[in-house]
Amino acid sequence: MxxxxxxxxxxxxxxxxxxxxxxxxxxxxxxxxxxxxALAGFQGSEVGNKYPRDPDQLRKALDLRGLxxxxxxxxAHLTTDGYERTAAEFIAHRDxxxxxxxxxxxxxxxxxxxxxxxxxxxxxxxxxxNEEEWALLTDGLNRLGxxxxxxxMKLVYHHHMGTGVQTTDEIRRLMEGTDPDNVSLLYDTGHLxxxxxxxxxxxxxxxxxxxxxxxxxxxxxxxxxxxxxKWSFLQAVKAGAFTVPGDGSIDFRPVFGLIAEGAYExxxxxxxxxxxxxxxxxxxxxxxxxxxxxxxxx
Length: 298
What we know:
Keywords: Cobalt, Lyase, Manganese. Helix content is 41%, strand content 16%. The protein is built from eleven helices and eleven strands.
């Protein structure tokens, strides 16, 4: 399916130790995390909260295990803090990732976001941007994308549950309001399905702008409980709304087919935040690796 294409496989550390809820996997060390990633057969990682921020120290630890850095999350606050403050933080983040050899920078707008609020119902209180906020967001992203391009990198926007860019219509507005040369898209299967979107529609409409892929599965029965019992995003994560590809309700075969047809090259990142005390991270990493090999031929 992907013969002759450069597809690299990474896995996010959030299955071992959670950035938003440090108590999940608090006992797991950085060294255990990256060692098990390599043992499960992955080539790369995104950056977690326990990773050293000194490039030389981090590079040495990764090189020993045959891993590299695919990217790292950046929280933008363009709609609330403005461009200048966001840009200063973005430049430092960009320069760190550039030192680590990454080609893309994952950006998500966190102005008005409820994804980190433990007791705020996810579907009842989803933020919605007004016209002024959309203008601040799209203009700011275009400018941040130019900063990324200075280092030969791409800004990839991460649509995300509990934020102002979650639904198909919101993704469309973001794509239509930004310059394709400056703003690309991170495609996340789990967040689309969790939101109630058709994940194939975004692939069909924006394949040429997708330059980073997160492979995340969902447990449909947990998502239904999130809606019915008015849980927050963090409560949903703790309850197991997300899992690795092949363990949930998403059929990834048509997803892989469309991505292959679109001549995608770059990283596939398995990202499935779960409680590691319930879902053993190494076990689930091995499960994901086997499923991708079986369904995508990688």
